[in-house]
Amino acid sequence: MKKFLKNCAYFFVLPSILIGLVLLLLGYKNYKQFDHYTLKSDVTSVYAGDSHVQLSIDDKIIPHSINVSQSGEPYCFTYIKIKNIVKNNPSVHDVYLGFSYHSLSSSYDDFIFGKFCSDISAKYFFILPNSEKLKFVKLNSNHLIKYLRNIVKKSMKKAYTSNSYNHFKHTSANQKSMDKRIIFQFYSEGQLDTFSKSNVYYLQKIIELCNRKKINLVMLNAPLHSYYKSKIPIKFIKKYDDFIDVNHLKTMDLTGLVLNDSCYIPDGDHVSKKGSLITSQYIATHYK
Question: Is the pTM of this model over 0.90?
Fold first, then answer.
């Protein structure tokens, strides 16, 4: 019986290991085809963060800028991205970092350690330090082959090219959708979420990096629908304000920018294509 089980283990485990190694080699080869760190020489401003910045900022409208934000991006990945960009692009002297009330919520931990980990971490796998690679492989060990395939697929896309495309046309904010969004971002099983220790930790590291490299860091709070904003728990508004004050951070707060319902997608937490154009034009005009 032991011999049978041993043979079964060889039959399943060894091929899985070989497949995994092949997938990693393919992914690394795809990754090396791109220069992930070099931007155009005229780029002086980088917009970084999650989907809020990704959808709000059209870098074709704002001169000498690039939007490298990606959906669901926690600060642990943003930190590595900014670190590499600053190191390899001396022309960059301004970083506009997405920072809002939801950025502090422990709901974000699902993107780092939880149910969204497999999809999100795969995007950044080959820019991670080896210790971080190992951590995410362990976190996804229950579906390792699927995870490795995901890495290969996502490694074929450049990590630092413009991500400012907004495909949300003919949309409008919807109260029911906004209520659902608030619950998703700030509540778990009917209880108010705690703060994300990981996001706060890496946010501090980004601040320290920019101070050390003499990079002008501006915290960008993207537009929010007035109804959505009114439902944000006071606990997170206070934490946001305190963090800004304690760290003496510069801000670009656009949450009060007057936009009508058609400038948002249903969740009221992201702008539509129309909203992105207005927001980007506003920045280009008022923040030269």
Answer: no
